[in-house]
Amino acid sequence: LSQHVVDAGGVPLLVLCLQEPEIALKRVAASALSDIAKHSPELAQTVVDAGAIAHLAQMILNSDAQLKRQVFSALSQIAKHSVDLAEMVVEAEIFPAAFACLNDTDEYVKKNCATLIREIVKHTPELAQMIVNAGGVAAVVNYVASTRGNVRLPGI
């Protein structure tokens, strides 16, 4: 189904929706982009080629928790597939600002942020070192210490 959305030209329209002022529209667009990107590196690359990363990165410090949940989910679904895609997410300069979201009041914002970090560092020692250099170790250790249950797993 995601391929059908891509074939119908839906991805650029979803990226346009990220730029609209309506928060609910941004949430749904980010969620749809996340669902498209999760299936394969090719679908994730289509989302990236439409310019989604830059628009998603601008929303990481938004005050709306549900939007941040979807933003971190979409970024992690993009980053999980390959070193190149992970590097593109990192190049959006979301770190160290994203580390602040590990202390968010919403558990799922924290979990999705930790998942994004996990998806980036798993690829190469260089990407892991970049997270370390940006202050990620302390942020993740604090996250693991302050959470309980399944929310804690991506940090571990």
Shape, per Cα inertia axes? globular
- How many DSSP-defined strands? 0
CATH topology: Leucine-rich Repeat Variant
CATH architectural name? Alpha Horseshoe
The number of helical segments is 10
Provide the helix percentage: 55-70%
Pfam family, one: Arm
InterPro entries: ARM-like (IPR011989), ARM-type_fold (IPR016024), Armadillo (IPR000225)
Protein name: Sperm-associated antigen 6
GO molecular function, one term: microtubule binding
Characterization of this structure:
This is Sperm-associated antigen 6. InterPro entries: ARM-like, ARM-type_fold, Armadillo. Pfam families: Arm. GO terms for molecular function: microtubule binding. By secondary structure, this protein is mostly helical. It has one domain (1-155): Leucine-rich Repeat Variant (Alpha Horseshoe), CATH 1.25.10. It is built from ten helices and no strands. The chain has helices at residues 2-7, 10-18, 23-37, 41-49, 52-57, 65-79, 83-90, 107-121, 125-133, 136-146. Helix 2 packs across helix 3 (23-37) and helix 3 packs parallel to helix 6 (65-79). The longest helix has 15 residues, at 23-37. The mean pLDDT is 93.
